[in-house]
């Protein structure tokens, strides 16, 4: 898929180097980079109760924030959180963040 998205030739190799693995309920996130740290990626897997991967999402050169969406009393308030029902639980830790601007994406779980 990366070759299709980036236009890389079949002769070019891309080695995925995982930097972190996190799990939130049925969602597993793996973030990594290439050896030169010039590109980054996030894979999000949805895993069923019996351990079968049922969905895979891949984000290439994109900053990902995972937000847990919950229900609750709308009258409750938290002073430093804009919406207490959408709490960020994970954010990409991108290599060399200052070198390039990347699109951002919020993944709700």
Automatic annotation (TrEMBL):
It holds the Pfam family WI12. It comes from the Eukaryota. Gene3D superfamilies: 3.10.450.50. This is Wound-induced protein 1-like. The gene is LOC120110164.
């Amino acid at each position: 898929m990366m070759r299709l998205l980036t236009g890389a030739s079949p002769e070019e190799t891309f080695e995925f180097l995982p930097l972190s693995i996190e799990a939130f309920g049925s969602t597993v996130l793996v973030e990594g980079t290439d050896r030169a740290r010039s590109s980054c990626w996030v894979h999000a897997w949805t895993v069923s109760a019996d351990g079968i991967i049922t969905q895979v999402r891949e984000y290439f050169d994109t900053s990902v924030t995972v937000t847990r969406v919950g229900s609750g009393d709308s009258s409750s308030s938290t002073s430093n959180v804009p919406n207490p029902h959408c709490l960020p639980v994970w954010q990409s830790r991108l290599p060399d963040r200052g070198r390039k601007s990347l699109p951002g994406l919020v993944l709700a779980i």
